[in-house]
Description:
The structure holds two protein chains of two kinds. Chain A is of the alpha+beta class. Chain A has helices at about 5-15, 25-65, 70-80, 190-200, 220-225; strands at about 85-105, 105-110, 115-125, 130-135, 135-145, 150-160, 170-175, 205-220, 230-235, 240. Chain B is built from ten helices and no strands. Chain B: Keywords: DNA-binding, Sigma factor, Transcription, Transcription regulation.
Amino acid sequence: MTMTDNDLRDLLARDASTGGGAGVTLADVDRRVRRIRRRRGVAGAAVAAGLATVVMVATSPRTMTISPADAPDAATAAGPSPTQDVTYLTSDRVLLDEEITAGGRKVPFRVAVQADSVNIQVECRTPSYAFVWHEGVLVDQGPCGIQDDHVDHLRSWTDQDGRVPSGRDEFHVAVIPPGSVVDGHGAVDADDAARIVGETGEYRTDARVTIREAFAVVGAGSPSVCQGDIVIRRPDGREILSSACDQPGEEPPSPQG
Amino acid sequence: MRDRADFERYVEQRSERLLRTAYLLCRDWATAEDLLQTALAKAWLAWRRVGENPDPYVYRILTNTHASWWRRRWRGEQPVDVLPEPAVGDPADLLGSRDAVRQALTCLPPKQRAVIVLRYFADLGDAQIAEILGCSAATVRSQASRALARLRVDSAARSAMSLEG
């Protein structure tokens, strides 16, 4: 027996109609959207870290190759490095991943880790407003989950002070209904946050807290500022290095040139 | 086709059919669900740019994602010294039979499989398939011709029908 086109159509239609999976729901799709966003965020952080490393590598030989013994003046000129600029980028190493099932109350989350810093993300599966405290200080707040603007908001905060006291970090997260904060966008202060959470009272919700390790990228910004200003001069036949960053009172140019 | 309500309506109305299309691409329901979730998620992320008819965009993500997963799986496969025995002793008995076609379908390269599924299940014309797969209509025709030859679909019967969409 030889098949015809119509036989092939029938076969495909029959195969596709038999068995069948559980189907795909909007909730499945929304979960996948969050995963893609998270992955893109991590990938973006990795790219940023890579770029920062490239900047450091491109910059460091200009300031490090002159030894004081060979050229003391030059070493002095290159020595005063610009202000150390440290940025903390989120890695993909998860330290804590827990559900929040109760809204209207501060839920504690603790991690104990030797790391440069930490990042906390709050995902809400129901439209909400979230507060995040770090070591007792209100550090982040805002819409969480899908809001009226149809955007799925994710709370994400990285400790840019990079302090992990004694290798321990304590966070508190409170999820409240989106209408609890006036207009849903204006930030409230710590006292109001505590009051609003207290007035809300406990209710059932569905959110997830993920804490990841963050790593320091040292000098990602400042050295590149001076990169173009390091020049070689030959006064009296000698070579010295100089930089606009070393000139007192002179503003270094912007990274964009 | 710009807001969340449109997207929700689209998922509600089209997900069943799209899931079947995904299944025919990968021949596994769990993978098909995974594939469709990924395609719809990516469609939502680009929803404002998708336009009035999201089908071509979603089909494109489905076929591209399937092809990339297929390549990954292919790289992970290990060659063996001895080929597995065929399920039926005489290969001639298989020719033209439904089981043989099914078996041959699973062996088609992803692009040829996509052409077959989009043409004979999604009922798309060659020009639309070309747009989805990012190739010319002539390439679609040649890929379809090769695929049909491997599936042993009768060429005379084929030529008697109008295949152009």
